[in-house]
Amino acid sequence: MLSVKNLKVAYGGIQAVKGIDLEVGEGELVTLIGSNGAGKTTTMKALTGSLPLQSGEIEFVGQSITGRGAWDLVVQGLAMVPEGRGVFTRMTILENLQMGAYVVTGSSAKAQVADDIDKAFATFPRLEERKNQLAGTLSGGEQQMLAMARALMSRPKMLLLDEPSMGLSPIMVEKIFDVVREVRSQGVTVLLVEQNAKLALQIADRAYVMESGLITMSGQAKDLLHDPRVRAAYLGE
Ligand code: ATP
Q1: In terms of CATH architecture, what is 2-234?
Q2: How many alpha carbons lie under 13 Å from residue 58 in its C-beta half-sphere?
């Protein structure tokens, strides 16, 4: 579904991503793990067109999306939940969800959006309880839920999640990861960028390890979970 070849990204003279290849197959849950500053967020931003590429080719469902902006990508079925969530803090939860459906058009749009809001509330009951509350008043975990629910309103084929566990309590992280699993079980392909390597490797099918702008290891997530190098570098063992 997503194919990235020889991706390079630089900030001025700083080479943050040094030529990486990455593949995500339809229906897969793939994780990109690595420590602070490895280049994970830069990779995500390059994939979604918010940073220019130095070089490389990105294909989504067989079509080049290199250089496309976020709007185009969402229309094509690639939605992103950025690091820090990016919810509209001065809008209500309901309004945030409606904003997520901005690409839904046509005569049945109204019914589809209403239906999808019901589904979002079924997945995230806590959001329904607070639907008329301003998003800025939500806790970090609730905002993460809202950001994911909002991204799902465009009915994406694929979801890119950047560090959903960041700043959350262990219980909330577990909840968010349960939702990631559920989203995948509903047929959405997922690329999950995470510093919480242990949990990410537990829920993913495959994984890539990024270090200093390069992919240094890749394979089945369960194999990497038991790999001594991964255990020493990322699982604190
Ligand atoms: P984190 O988990 O801390 O977000 P990361 O793996 O996502 O880490 P990036 O944020 O992609 O890493 O950063 C990769 C490298 O690029 C780092 O060396 C970082 O200092 C550098 N970098 C990131 N953003 C900028 C920027 N706007 N200008 C200059 N250098 C940057």
Answers
A1: 3-Layer(aba) Sandwich (3.40)
A2: 23
The atom of ligand 1 lying closest to the CA of 213 is 14
Pairing of strands 29-33, 55-60: unpaired
Residue 194, pLDDT above cutoff 90: yes
What confidence score (pLDDT) does residue 105 get? 85
Tokens 């990024």, located at residue = 210
Q: Where are the domains of the chain?
A: 2-234
* 71: confidence class by pLDDT, cuts 50, 70, 90: confident
38 lines ligand 1 (CB under 6 A): yes
Both structure tokens of 190: 């997922």
Pocket test for ligand 1, best of 32, 41, 47, 51 (most atoms within 8 A of CB): 41
Report the alpha-carbon distance of residue 188 to residue 158 in Å, rounded: 5
Residue length of the chain: 237
Banded pLDDT at 236 (limits 50, 70, 90) = confident
